[in-house]
């Protein structure tokens, strides 16, 4: 499809892009497309379709559908815009890095908009292909940050609860980097003692200490040309933090028992489930090290904050445990899981699916194949809705002081869970210590 008023140079330029590219008018109409765009998206040969119809199957511009529209921002600012969106293509949905450039006419006014789209190879919104999957707004936003930072050498700090996929995201950073052909070396920092920390990270010379019968290559050396992933960096004790800081500051290290100064050559990605800023305040984490590693922090959402991803994760993970069977999950069971709190995040979902695959005799996983706490979460929510309705009918929902609401609610929840503190704390999203304090305060136990 070609708008005959578009200069030939402009059309030729579109074809030079190795990615799908389109020329748009300010009212979102597609004026010209390159070949790769036509092959990737629906048939746009019918003249003057809107970009939002083709990419999103919307009948209105993205910003009216709750998305950030690069076109709108480009018109407002006159500057290049970059956003990360989920697009419909003829291969199904794809995560797309969209760049929009204003194109000026000879008079200097913006006449067209050039949109170039690059597909993410790091994650998928569909089951099957890659390990990392997600399509919720929170996941897409996180992936957008990963796509931005991955090609650089910047240190990345991944923050999130246990099981949210920090290691998978660290691998994605590596995969999207210039170092992707090099090694990805994960280091589990918790539990490394002072001496172990040094010899693991820096290696040691033969005879450096009793039992050092050979020279050992350290993980820093193994990561040469690649990415070093320091998992649970918040667990590194203070004395080891100094050694890590020295490595990062100088870019050099020495094997234990060695005299030779070696040059490090790695890109650093760190992760923790801890609140590092709080650890700095509490004197548990060095401030200088914190600022060294906090160059590009990314918060990974908990599974309960992206429940829209649960069906996709189930579809992606079930084949891992289903063996030869093509198992599915019933809508009731999916709905149970959507109401569950998932303190262990995706790792817990994996375990739940593995267990369900062993329990199911038929081809469909039902709520009865899920652990009691998942079934209970579902009843619990239903009960609380029903109870609120009963209270409303009894006209007792007139305003009462907050602490009384808290007390009554806690008493009720305590009974529902038969006094299971661990589960109750997880469902209420508080620590067991906080829960214990509350229970004592209200004399519940
Ligand atoms: N978005 C995702 N898509 C598919 N699988 C995922 C996703 N996120 C996490 N997982 C799976 O969940 C499990 C836990 O992920 P991972 O080990 O990356 O989490 P983590 O945050 O590093 O956990 P921890 O803090 O305990 O080390 C893995 O089996 C991983 O494959």
From TrEMBL:
Q: Which Gene3D superfamilies match?
A: 1.10.8.60, Homeodomain-like, P-loop containing nucleotide triphosphate hydrolases, PAS domain
Q: Which PROSITE patterns match?
A: SIGMA54_INTERACT_1, SIGMA54_INTERACT_2, SIGMA54_INTERACT_3, SIGMA54_INTERACT_4
Q: Does the keyword ATP-binding apply?
A: yes
Keyword Glycoprotein (UniProt): no
User: Which SMART domains did the record assign?
Assistant: AAA (SM00382)
Tell me the keywords, alphabetical order.
Answer: ATP-binding, DNA-binding, Nucleotide-binding, Transcription, Transcription regulation
InterPro entries from the entry?
A: AAA+_ATPase, AAA_lid_NorR, Homeodomain-like_sf, HTH_Fis, P-loop_NTPase, PAS-like_dom_sf, PAS_4, Sigma_54_int
Where does the Sigma-54 factor interaction domain lie?
A: 132-358
| One example of a Gene Ontology biological process annotation | regulation of DNA-templated transcription
Q: Name one GO molecular function term.
A: sequence-specific DNA binding
Listed name of the protein = Sigma 54-interacting transcriptional regulator
Q: What is the lineage of its organism?
A: Bacteria, Pseudomonadati, Pseudomonadota, Gammaproteobacteria, Oceanospirillales
């Amino acid at each position: 499809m070609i708008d005959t008023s578009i200069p030939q140079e402009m059309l030729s330029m579109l074809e030079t892009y190795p990615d799908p590219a389109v020329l748009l008018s300010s009212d979102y109409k597609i004026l010209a497309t390159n070949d790769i765009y036509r092959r990737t998206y629906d048939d746009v040969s019918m003249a003057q379709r809107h970009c939002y119809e083709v990419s999103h199957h919307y009948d209105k511009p993205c910003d009216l559908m709750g998305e950030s529209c690069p076109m709108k921002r480009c018109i407002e600012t006159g500057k290049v815009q970059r956003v990360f969106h989920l697009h419909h293509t003829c291969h199904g949905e794809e995560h797309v890095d969209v760049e929009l450039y204003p194109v000026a006419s000879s008079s200097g006014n913006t006449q067209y908009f050039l949109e170039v789209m690059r597909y993410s190879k790091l994650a998928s919104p569909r089951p099957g292909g890659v390990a990392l999957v997600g399509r919720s707004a929170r996941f897409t936003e996180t992936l957008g940050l990963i796509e931005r930072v991955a090609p650089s050498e910047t240190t990345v700090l991944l923050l999130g609860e246990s099981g949210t996929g920090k290691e998978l995201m660290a691998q994605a950073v590596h995969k999207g980097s210039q170092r992707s052909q090099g090694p990805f070396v994960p280091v589990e920092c918790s539990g490394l003692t002072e001496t172990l920390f040094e010899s693991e990270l820096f290696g040691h010379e033969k005879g450096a200490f009793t039992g050092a019968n050979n020279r050992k290559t350290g993980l820093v050396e193994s990561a040469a040309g690649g990415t070093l992933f320091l998992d649970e960096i918040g667990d590194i004790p203070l004395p080891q933090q100094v050694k890590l800081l020295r490595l990062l500051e100088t870019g050099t290290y020495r094997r234990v028992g060695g005299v030779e100064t070696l040059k490090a050559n790695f890109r650093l990605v760190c992760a923790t489930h801890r609140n590092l800023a709080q650890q700095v305040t509490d004197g548990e984490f060095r401030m200088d090290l914190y600022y060294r590693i906090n160059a590009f922090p990314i918060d990974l959402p908990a599974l309960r904050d992206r429940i829209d991803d649960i069906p996709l994760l189930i579809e992606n993970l079930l084949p891992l445990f289903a063996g030869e069977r093509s198992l599915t999950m019933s809508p009731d069971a999916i709905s149970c899981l959507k109401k569950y709190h998932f303190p262990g995040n995706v790792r817990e979902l994996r375990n739940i699916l593995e267990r369900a695959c062993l329990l199911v005799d038929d081809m469909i996983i039902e709520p009865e194949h899920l652990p009691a706490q998942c079934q209970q979460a579902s009843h619990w929510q239903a009960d609380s809705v029903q109870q609120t309705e009963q209270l409303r009918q009894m006209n007792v929902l007139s305003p009462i002081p907050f602490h009384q609401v808290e007390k009554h609610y806690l008493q009720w929840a305590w009974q529902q869970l038969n006094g299971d503190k661990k589960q109750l704390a997880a469902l209420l999203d508080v620590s067991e210590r906080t829960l214990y304090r509350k229970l004592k305060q209200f004399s519940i136990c």
